[in-house]
Amino acid sequence: MYTHEYLKKFTSDLFQKMGCSPGDADAISDVFLRAELRGLPSHGMIRIKDHYELWKAHRINTTPDIRIVHESPGTAVVDADGAIGMLSARRSMEIAISKARKTGTAWVATRNSNHLGIGAYYSMLALDYDMIGITMTNANPLVAPANSVSRLLGTNPITVAIPAGKEPPFVADFSTTPIARGKLAVAAKKGEEVPLGYVQDKEGNPSSDPDILTKGGAMLPLGSDLEHGSHKGYALAAIVDILSGVLSGANFGPFIPPNLAFMPMPEIQVGKGMGHLFGAIRIDGFMPSGEFKKRMDQWITTFRNAKPIKGKKVLIPGDIEREAEVRIRREGISILPGIQKELKEVAEQLGVDFEVKDE
Amino acid sequence: MYTHEYLKKFTSDLFQKMGCSPGDADAISDVFLRAELRGLPSHGMIRIKDHYELWKAHRINTTPDIRIVHESPGTAVVDADGAIGMLSARRSMEIAISKARKTGTAWVATRNSNHLGIGAYYSMLALDYDMIGITMTNANPLVAPANSVSRLLGTNPITVAIPAGKEPPFVADFSTTPIARGKLAVAAKKGEEVPLGYVQDKEGNPSSDPDILTKGGAMLPLGSDLEHGSHKGYALAAIVDILSGVLSGANFGPFIPPNLAFMPMPEIQVGKGMGHLFGAIRIDGFMPSGEFKKRMDQWITTFRNAKPIKGKKVLIPGDIEREAEVRIRREGISILPGIQKELKEVAEQLGVDFEVKDE
Fold first, then answer.
1. DSSP assignment string, A278-336
2. Are B65 and B21 within 8 A, CB to CB?
3. CB distance B332 to B357 below 8 Å
C-alpha cells in the first residue's frame, strides 16, 4: 500500500523531470491520484508510463502555451498547444467557470489536447462555485456506429456534477458504450469470454471474444444492438464527438490521434489533437442556490429511498466513487506488481526515487 | 390520406375553439403536424384527444401568461402558467436563442408546462440562427432506476440539432430508454411478446410482457441491464430529470403530473407542472460559421461513408425523419380509422368540421 501523498509527490516529481513547472506537475498529479482515490485505477498510475512514452516521442508538450483563440462572453475555444490533457482540461474548465460567473453559463471547447484522465475531476471543480459542471471528450476510435463495421467513435464519456445541500453532490461519469475498454483487456488476460453486446467481429456479427479489437472487430455503442437502442448510444457518442472535436477545431471520429506511443499517428489530420468540451452553469442563474440545493436533496432522497430489487441497492450516481475515496484515503493505494515495475523503470530513467513494495 | 395543410388548419381551429389565440393555435398545430410529417405519428394527431380531455379537466391553460421569472444574461427560468407544452417550449427556445445571440450560449429551464410533443422541433429552431439547439424534458414516471422496482423516471428524451453546410443538419432525438413507450402499446394490442431488455416485472425480474406496466412492472433505462450499462441510461435519464425538473422549479421524478386526463394528479407536488430545458449555442462563438459547417459536412460524409454491415445502411441521426418528411409531404398523411373517429368526436364537441376518409 502507498499513501496518497507519496504517490502524488512521486507523480509530480516525474512530470517536473519531463519539463513541467512545479505548479503544472502538481495539477497533473492531482488528477492521476484522484482517479486512484475514487477507485478508478484504470485512469491512475497505470497510465504514467504511456505519458512518459508519449513525452519521449515528442507527442506531448510539457511547456505548453494554453490560450483562448476565439471567444464570446459565454464561449471560448482553447488551443492547448499539445499539453498533457489533465492540464488543458483544468485550465479550460477554469475558463468556463470564470465566464459563467459573468454570463450565467458558458461552454469551452478545447483542441490540440490529449487524454484528460477522469472527466469527473473537472466537472466537480464547478461544485465549489455553486455551479453544475459538464465535461465530455472524444477518444481513440474503437466503436462502430449502428449498422457499421468501421471504428469511428471513441468511448466518448460524459460527466455531469450537480451540487446538493446536505446530501453529497450528484456526479455521473459514464462512457457511451456498455463497458469501458479496460474490461475487455481484463477478460482477455484471464482468457475469459465477455457477454454478447460488448463487441462485434469484423463483419459486424455478435462476438464474445474480448480480443476481437485486434482482429478487426469493434466495440458497440450503449444499447448494444439496434433492438435495444444502440442507435441512441451511437447518437450520444456522435454528439460528444461533434461538440468536442468538430466545434473545437480538434480531430474527430477516425482522425483522433491515439494516446499510445506505439500506435502511429493517423495519416490524415482534420484538426489539432484531441478535443474536449467543458460546461459550467450557475445555479443562481435559475433560482437561489439554497432553494436549488434543498430541491436537489429531495431528488436524491427520493431516489435513494426507491424500493430496491431484492438483494440489490439503489445508488445515486457518484455514490460508488465517493465511498471508494473514503476507504482508499484511509487504507492506502494498492499498485499491482507489474505497474510498480513499470513505475520503477520510468523513475530510474528520469532520476526519481520509487519504492517497490510487496502488495 | 390528408394533406398537411388540411390537418394543420383543422388542428389550429380546434385549439382556437379551446380558447387559444389564432397565433398560439397555429404555433401548437405546427408541432403536431411536424410530428406527422417526420414520420412520428405517436406524437401527432393521436394526441389531440388527450389535449382536449386535459383542457376539459382544466389541466391545461389556453390563455397562459408565459413569462421569465428569474434570469441572468445567459440563463432563465420560464413559468409557462400551465400552457400547452408546444407553446411553452417554443417560447422558451426563442428566449434561449435571443439570449445566446448576446452571450454566445444560453440555457432556459421551463416549469409549469405540459407535454411538448417532438423535442426536435424546438432544437431545430436554433438551426436558422446558425446555432446548435438542445431540448430535453422530463416525462411521466414509468422507468425504474438501475437496481430498483420503483417507477421514478420518464423516458426523458434528449434532442440535439447541429447545423451543417451542404449536408442536411444532424438532428438526434432519442429517449433514454431502449424503446419508446408506444412500442409496448403496439405489441400489447397485437398480443405479441417484446424482447427481454425493455421491461421488468414488479419484482424486477426480466419480462417480455408488453402489458407489464399495468401489473406493477417498469420500463428499463437505456442499456437494459447492469451488465450492458443500464446504470448509464439511468444516469442519463436522471440528468434530464434534474436539469428539466429540479433546476426549473417544476415537478420531478415520481411527482410529475401525468399528461393523460384519466390518470389522477399525484398527491404530492414538489414544484409546478412538467419541466423542460432548452439550450442554444452560437456556432460563431467558437469559429466562423462557414468553417464549422465545412467541418460538419466532413464529419457527416465520413460517417455516411462508413463501411456498413452487409445488407445494412449507416445512417446519420435525422436521416430517417428527413426522408419521411419528403415522402409524407408528397404523399399525404395517413390517419388510422380509430384516430379519425376520435378526431371527429372532438371536432363535433367543439363545432369544427372534420372529414372522415377511407384509408
1. EEEEEGGGTS-HHHHHHHHHHHHHHHHTSPBPTT-----TTHHHHHHHHHHHHH-B---
2. no
3. no
Taking only the tens place, the pLDDT of each residue in B295-329 is 999 999 999 999 999 999 999 999 999 999 999 99
Distance from CA of B260 to the nearest CA of A (A): 24
Last residue of a domain, one of A219, A244, A273: A219
| C-alpha to C-alpha distances, B247 to A154, A347, B267, nearest whole angstrom | 31, 48, 21
pLDDT at B127 over 80: yes
Mean pLDDT of A108-114: 98
Please report whether residue A326 resides in a domain.
no
pTM of the model: 0.98
Q: What is the pLDDT of residue B359?
A: 66
Same domain, A25 and A71: no
Query: What's the pLDDT at B37?
Result: 98
Please give the share of chain B, as a percent, with pLDDT higher than 90: 93
Average pLDDT over residues B336-341: 94
B219, B240, B274 — which closes off a domain?
A: B219
Tell me the average pLDDT across A244-267. 88
Asked if B241 has any chain A CB less than 8 Å from its own CB, the reply is: yes
- Chain A hits for B308, Cβ within 8 Å: 147-149
Chain centre to alpha carbon of residue B256: 15
CATH number of A195's domain: 3.30.60.50
User: Which of B175, B179, B307 is the closest to A149 by Cβ?
Assistant: B307
A281-320 pLDDT, tens digit per residue, is: 999 999 999 999 999 999 999 999 999 999 999 999 999 9
Same domain, A135 and A160: yes
Interface of B with A in 253-272 (CB under 8 A): 253-254, 270-271
Q: Tell me what the mean pLDDT of segment B105-125 comes to.
A: 97
The number of distinct structural domains making up chain B is 3
ipTM of the complex: 0.97
Whether B22 shows a pLDDT value over 70: the answer reads yes
Whole-number Å distance between alpha carbons of B226 and B211: 23
Domain that holds residue B214: 179-219
Q: Do A103 and B74 touch (CB under 8 A)?
A: yes
Above 70 in pLDDT, residue B129? yes
CB distance from A278 to chain B under 8 Å? no
Distance separating alpha carbons of residues B64 and B87, to the nearest angstrom: 9
Report the C-alpha dihedral over residues A142, A139, A21, A109, rounded to 10 degrees: 170
Q: What is the mean pLDDT of the segment spanning B8-15? A: 98
Q: Which band of pLDDT confidence, cut at 50, 70 and 90, is reported for residue B259?
A: confident
